[in-house]
Amino acid sequence: MKLDSKQCEAVLAVIDGGSFEQAAVRLNLTPSAVSQRVRALEDALGMPLVVRGRPCRATQAGQRLMQYLRRAQLLEDDLQADFAAGHAGPVSIAVAVNADSLGSWFLPALAQFLIREQVLLDVTVDDQDHTYTLLETGLALGCISTERQAMRGCVAEPLGNMRYRCMASPDFRKRWFPRGMSREAARRAPVMAFNRKDRLQADFLLRHFGLPANAYSCHYVPASEPYMQAICLGLGWGMLPELQMKESRSSGALVDLSPRRPMDVGLYWHRWKVQSPRLERMSETLIEAARQVLT
């Protein structure tokens, strides 16, 4: 069967907007008209595509449709750009990136490419252990993830390791770890976590001190710069990427609590095997740059 473009557009708008009302505003239609288009496509395919909730989300079949539609749109945009001899408008590419990569090497690695190729980034930030899900559900065309195994139809390219160190302010170390980092001191000292998906500190404490996740207290600060600022202010200790803290470390604002115990997190770039020429070139640029800055 041939997919109806207006019906597909309605499904995408509902998933992206989270509701039929938001989709209606985006498409300049009534919510009822959007609902009719979504229902017509579901009837044609013989399966539900949208879970009606707050927010609306894609079913498994809807996720597969979104994967196809986003890739098809990017291929069409690239083709139009070729026919227009480079005079077509910019192309938007949705990617999922972990906050530490976004806050350090990711944008410098792609800046010149994005300018030259007229690419607009649509970035979703999530923990590196969870960005894979965004590619799987069709919300991204590429992602940086700790997952080594590529899902069907995709490839996973190793980027390198992002090295993290256990950092705190000098005053915090003096207050909580005057004799060094021990199990009892680590149990009492407050921890800085990025969010509830962030496993770095938990993995460090479990691996080196046998402390489970409920054995210590945590702050949660889900933004890269405020997270590092909170550590510099002495609110807690946390795992920071070497790439982000060179100045703070050299100035003495941060000290390494456990210099012989760095944590390396392997990162991979996941993308579809069949992709547009522009996304292919972006992937090549990203991989080359990452391998120069990551350990």
Structural notes for this entry:
The mean pLDDT is 88. Helix content is 46%, strand content 20%. It starts with a helix and ends with a helix. Strands 3, 4, 5, 6, 9, 10 and 11 form a seven-stranded mixed β-sheet that branches. The chain has helices at 5-17, 20-27, 31-45, 60-83, 99-102, 106-117, 131-136, 170-176, 183-188, 200-209, 224-232, 246-250, 277-293; strands at 50-51, 57-58, 91-97, 119-125, 142-145, 154-168, 191-193, 218-220, 238-241, 255-256, 263-272. The chain has a domain at 162-264: Periplasmic binding protein-like II (D-Maltodextrin-Binding Protein, domain 2, 3-Layer(aba) Sandwich), CATH 3.40.190. By secondary structure, the protein is an alpha/beta fold.
Shape: elongated
Helix content: 40-55%
CATH homology superfamily name of the domain at 162-264:
Periplasmic binding protein-like II
Order of helices and strands: HHHEEHEHHEHEEHHEHEHEHEEH
The computed structural class is: alpha/beta
Using the 3D structure, state the CATH architecture of the domain at 162-264.
3-Layer(aba) Sandwich
Residues in β-strands, percent: 15-25%
Query: Tell me about the biggest sheet?
Result: 7 strands, mixed
What is CATH's topology name of the domain at 162-264? D-Maltodextrin-Binding Protein, domain 2
**Average pLDDT taken over every residue:** 88
| Helical stretch tally | 13
CATH class of the domain at 162-264: Alpha Beta
Radius of gyration: 23 Å
Low-confidence parts: none
Oligomer: single chain
CA-CA gap between termini: 49 Å
The tally of strands reads: 11
InterPro entries: ArgP, LTTR, LysR_HTH_N, LysR_subst-bd, WH-like_DNA-bd_sf, WH_DNA-bd_sf
Pfam families: HTH_1, LysR_substrate
Protein name: ArgP/LysG family DNA-binding transcriptional regulator
GO molecular function, one term: DNA binding
